[in-house]
């Protein structure tokens, strides 16, 4: 029995780092918004602006929020899993914005493990062997004329 347990223990020690993979993936917001799946889920009533992007005139800020989403990354590329995760976060923001009477989410930043990462074009996502996750922080706003 001992001769059988030793190889299993060695295999577990070797496999553990592979399961703990945490690959940082930068996904352009424009790519997520252009996904065919986004067309059916994001209705256009809420606009999204990353921190550093030019925004239309903000008439009123209406609070802030965080969306922390995860998705199954099994049998998906890191990019595919991250796009799905970010889309889920945007859907969550859209639903909350509508409830608040906002038509935009501005100053969006990546907020993985409560660490802000600002980029005017991309959102940071972390992909592992089984799960991908993205956290976003943003402010609800009323923009326009």
From TrEMBL:
Alphabetized, the UniProt keywords read: Signal
Record's superkingdom? Bacteria
Leader sequence range is 1-20
Q: What is this protein called?
A: Excinuclease ATPase subunit
Organism of origin: Chromobacterium alticapitis
